[in-house]
Write a structure and sequence with these properties.
Elements (H helix, E strand, L loop, with lengths): L1 H19 L5 H16 L12 E6 L6 H5 L6 E6 L6 H14 L3 E7 L9 H12 L14 H14 L8 E7 L6 E4 L2
Parallel strand pairs: 1-2, 1-3, 3-4
Antiparallel strand pairs: 4-5
Helix pairs in contact: 1-2
């Protein structure tokens, strides 16, 4: 009975949203959608630590619905995202906090097919940014890659080699296919 009422409320909010949709910014639309989400969400009182004790390093790509693809619910895992899903200094910083403060003991490196990080090379992108933004970023590595499997292996190895990631942490890797939703395991 509660879900029926919440669903009716959600429909009412989305009907109101569709009327205003043309004149509202995306952020305003997000705030309207959040009202419907709150109505369905309820008071979960989830614990701070992720239930599975897993942290997932993945890409910011909007075609990747990591939680759904892996059968995760709210509170199950830390999902850390950046361009290309690459292991960077900041990603390691987040993983150290995830492990040492939140108790995660497993890391999954999850890259995907048709990644934007495969569409450029550092040198040409650096030149483009200098021309477009007037900023010299010749010393900046934007971490592009050509071979998806190799990028997963490289990132897994960075985690294995990091003194900040304990040896007993399980590190796995996979590639998500954006067309089918299927995943392929990558071994190091």
């Amino acid at each position: 009975m509660t879900n029926v009422l919440k669903n009716d409320k959600m429909v009412e909010i989305f009907d109101l949203q569709s009327v205003k949709e043309e004149i509202m910014s995306y952020f305003e639309q997000f705030m309207q959608a959040n009202q419907a989400y709150v109505a369905l969400h309820g008071q979960l009182n989830l614990p701070l630590r992720p239930k599975t004790r897993v942290a997932i390093v993945t890409c910011m790509d909007s075609r990747l619905h990591v939680a759904q693809a892996l059968g995760l619910a709210l509170g199950d895992a830390h999902i850390l995202r950046n361009a290309g899903g690459r292991v960077t200094e900041d990603m390691i910083r987040s993983l150290v906090i995830s492990q040492q403060q939140m108790g995660t003991r497993e890391i999954v490196v999850l890259h995907h097919t048709d990644c934007g990080a495969q569409t450029f090379e550092n040198e040409s992108f650096q030149e483009y940014l200098k021309k477009e933004l007037g900023v010299d970023v010749s010393n900046k590595d934007f971490l592009p890659f050509k071979d998806i499997e190799e990028s997963v292996r490289e990132d897994m190895q960075l985690l294995i080699d990091s003194p900040l990631i304990p040896e007993d942490v399980v590190i796995s890797g996979a590639i998500y296919d954006v067309d089918t939703g299927s995943m392929t395991v990558v071994e190091i």
